[in-house]
Design brief:
By secondary structure, the chain is of the alpha+beta class. 36% of the residues lie in helices and 25% in strands.
């Protein structure tokens, strides 16, 4: 899943479309699935492994962007005494993907769904990811069903996970859910999203966790030119994300108690990375007193403010040290926590888009049943961190290169213009080369000049912006 969401509105001009297509070719991104994978997907869609337990009487709903069709999660929320019951159904990809088969092998090659500004390259063929395995409304689907009981403060009190047949009743989107909650017209299963989400946010702040409200960066094409704007996430986005975090934390706790699993881990950010963010804050006129922690600062930011939005985009750099940690036979790893979550955490809620989640689900199902995971899980477990790291690096490269291409398209008609900015990084081996954060539009690019003033504001001139080369370049004015 991308850390920096960016897309192009309108029909991209030919140079931008060509640059994105060339990037896919350069990175070896497959244009389609091999015929044998398509055939296996078609067969699996017709004959999945179905569970015995029937939960189709529970009126689940999905909450996603309006155009999404690869629906990993469906939700049902209810009161339970003074607390709450969260039912979270996750698409059961293992019901369709046979271990060692063509679908499985292709998923291990792709690792993750890749997101480009103009298209998406899926992990699984769309007959599954947007069809038979997707939790579409009005369709009975196999799922991994989590039932998590919370107390009045939102703390976890009991967890169950099992395979089940589920049936979503409605495909909802964030804007309409937010409107109905704000107007007080949302029915209780949806209205409780705010109540439970806010309770979990309070617990997150209490434990020192961080949720980045990273805005979507949108490049708008108008009259053969481009403009940049940010779409700030709605509170409903945050509340829904808390349900995913809740499930991921419950999964990690089950794995640790069972003595086997795959965790998503992140060490504390090094001082240098935080210092770089402080320089970015200076460039964007964001007041960050030295006695205020990073987590405390984030809770004061408004993603609707373009300067704050740009800063939140850069905060994703602190997540780059995240990785996957496996353990077996009760031998726990040295690092079991995710610094941003401030707790043990596992990826398990997006198996249509991320390979590791399928394995995490199997381990959790086995843990609750008091059994060992299937042999195919243990057979792949040791290699998963490296495979996921390779996939994450490729996704990161796609993300960085796409941002460079799109920002070049944004600035292509402004060669020679002078901008206000701040040098946020300098190459230690080449002190005349650095990174500049431009104030408006809020883009980041390479800057060249003698004695670059690290952390200070300066004027820079745009000397290159070509979507075909995917890079922008500034010089000190």
């Amino acid at each position: 899943m991308p850390r920096r969401k960016i897309h192009v509105t309108g029909a991209p001009e030919a140079p931008l479309r060509a640059a994105l297509a060339a990037l896919r070719s350069e990175l070896g991104i497959p244009e389609d699935f091999p015929p044998e994978v398509h055939a296996a997907a078609e067969q699996a869609a017709k004959d999945p492994a179905l569970p015995v337990y029937d939960a189709t009487d529970i009126p689940f709903f999905t909450l996603d962007p309006p155009t999404s069709t690869d629906l990993d999660q469906a939700t049902h929320l209810s009161r339970r005494g003074t607390g709450y019951r969260v039912r979270y159904a996750i698409a059961d990809v293992a019901a369709f993907v046979a271990p060692g088969g063509a679908l499985d092998a292709e998923a291990h090659r792709r690792v993750t769904t890749l997101y480009f500004p103009d298209e998406r390259v899926p992990l699984h063929p769309t007959v599954l990811s947007e069809g038979a395995a997707s939790l579409l409304p009005g369709r009975t689907r196999p799922a991994v069903l989590w039932t998590i009981d919370l107390d009045a403060e939102g703390r976890t009190r009991a967890v169950d996970v099992r395979r089940a047949l589920v049936r979503s009743r409605a495909k909802l989107d964030y804007a309409h859910v937010q409107r109905d909650i704000d107007k007080g017209t949302a029915e209780e299963p949806v209205a409780l999203l705010k109540e439970i989400g806010e309770a979990r946010e309070r617990l997150e702040a209490e434990r020192g966790g961080i949720s980045l409200d990273v805005p979507e960066q949108e490049i708008i094409e108008q009259d053969h030119t481009y403009a940049l704007r940010y779409r700030a996430p709605l509170p409903a986005d945050r509340w829904n994300a808390q349900l995913s975090l809740l499930t991921g934390m419950a999964a990690a706790d089950l794995m640790l108690a069972h003595g086997a699993g795959i965790l998503r881990t992140l060490p504390t950010a090094p001082d240098g990375a935080v210092a770089r963010l402080r320089r970015t804050a200076t460039a964007l006129h964001i007041d960050w007193p030295h006695h205020v922690s990073y987590a405390a600062l984030l809770r004061t930011l408004d993603p609707h403010d373009p300067h704050h939005a740009a800063f939140l985009q850069e905060c994703t750099t602190l997540l780059r040290g995240a990785g996957y940690t496996v353990f077996q036979d009760g031998r726990l790893p040295g690092l079991t926590t995710h610094a941003a979550v401030a707790a043990a955490y596992a990826h398990c809620t997006a198996p249509l888009r991320r390979l590791a989640d399928r394995y995490a689900s199997e381990i959790c199902l086995a843990a609750v049943a008091g059994q060992d995971p299937p042999d195919w899980v243990f057979a792949a477990l040791d290699a998963l961190p490296r495979r996921m790291a390779d996939g994450s690096r490729r996704a990161g490269t796609v993300e960085r290169e796409c941002v460079d291409i799109v920002e070049a398209a944004l600035l292509k008609d402004r060669i020679g213009d002078v901008f206000d900015g701040c040098v946020v990084d300098v190459d230690e081996h080449r002190p005349n080369v650095g990174t500049v954060q431009v104030l408006s539009p809020a883009v980041i690019g390479r800057v060249e000049g003698t004695d670059l003033p690290l952390g200070e504001r300066l004027r820079v001139r745009l000397t290159r912006a070509d979507p075909g080369t995917s890079k922008i370049l500034f010089t000190v004015a």
